[in-house]
Amino acid sequence: MALTLAESAKYTTNDLQRGVVETFVLQSPVLDSLPLLTVSGNAYAYNEELTLPGVEFRAVNSAYTESTGTINPRTETLVILGGDADVDTFLVQTRGNLSDLRAEQTTLKVKAAVTKYQDAFINGDTAVDANSFDGLKKRLTGPQLVVAATNGIGPVAGGHDFFDALDALIAAVPGGAEALYMNAAVRARVMSSGRRLGGTSFIERSFFGERPATVPTYNGIPMLDIGTKGDGTNIIPQTETQGTATGTATSIYAVRYTQNEGSPGVAGLTNGGVQVKDLGEIDAKPVYRTRIEFFTGLAVFGRGAARLTGVLAS
Question: Taking a C-beta distance cutoff of 8 angstroms, is the pair 82, 294 a contact?
């Protein structure tokens, strides 16, 4: 069974946990839509299809030529993302309401966790951080890499040529993309060029009954700014190199979501979802502690995502 965090929150009866999960969703353009496959244990094993077996037409009384397809067994392991939110007993005594102070720190901790997850979703590399998971940048190779232009191209200066490359990116995902992830500067340029050339529009999405948020789309596909890292730099940076565009290019990622390994797409993995524990006042030091943990991972089935490189913010 696969549920998004938004759906899982509806089944949560614990108010603290529900509030934390909803904050995850409200803060994240990834976790608000990414299906989470439930994993038993600490890993998810599946078979990746490599080649299909042969079939043929045969004559009467003749035999088929036997052939078999090939598969590649793969395993995605779960990782642990989380942290402790502490409120000193002194602050509780001198600054008032304990619940308000703890809620404030818990919200900040969730925002940090969301930022960390979204960074790993794109840039995760187990060779750099063995405790993380590999993100789309590392996973997408071969036909899932689309080059915008030899020396890069931007939405405004490139015009139709840029949108041709964007169409090629979307076409690289069987069944069509359901989200386009990019940085804020490129999204603004795509919107600007789209107003002139056509193809962009706006949709509304609402979360838990709150006021709808307007989201720009390209041919019906949401264009999402995936945000910044904890240090304020773009998760999808404008520092890539494409030909003569040295350190000024970026990428756009097209993603299709899936709820099972039999359909091309991207899915998150979890055992237990987002877990929240109120540890109360602990013995180690005079603080009230809330612990947030997310046992999670990522899987890309088939050609469920693609990356457009060489995108200029011009």
Answer: yes
Q: Are strands 179-182 and 145-147 parallel, antiparallel or unpaired?
A: unpaired
CATH architecture of 136-259+303-312: 2-Layer Sandwich (3.30)
**Tens of pLDDT, residues 167-202:** 999 999 999 999 999 999 999 999 989 888 876 766
| SS3 of residue 112 by DSSP | helix
Q: Could you tell me the sign of the dihedral formed by the alpha carbons of 116, 119, 125, 127, in that order?
A: negative
> Which element (helix H / strand E) includes 122?
helix 98-123
Reported as half-sphere exposure (CB side, CA atoms, 13 A), residue 209 has a value of 1
Q: State the first-to-last Cα distance of the chain, in angstroms, to the nearest integer.
A: 43
Exposure string for 72-100, b = 16+ CB within 10 A, e = fewer: eeeebebbebbeebbbeeebbeeeeeeee
23, two tokens: 């904050």
Ranges of each domain in the chain: 2-51+63-134+270-298, 136-259+303-312
The single-letter code of the amino acid at 164 is: D
Q: pTM of this prediction?
A: 0.88
The token duo for 170 is 């979307």
Structure tokens at 39: 């994993």
CATH class of 2-51+63-134+270-298: alpha beta
CB 91 within 8 A of CB 102: no
- The tens digit of pLDDT for each residue in 66-89 reads 988 877 778 899 999 999 999 999
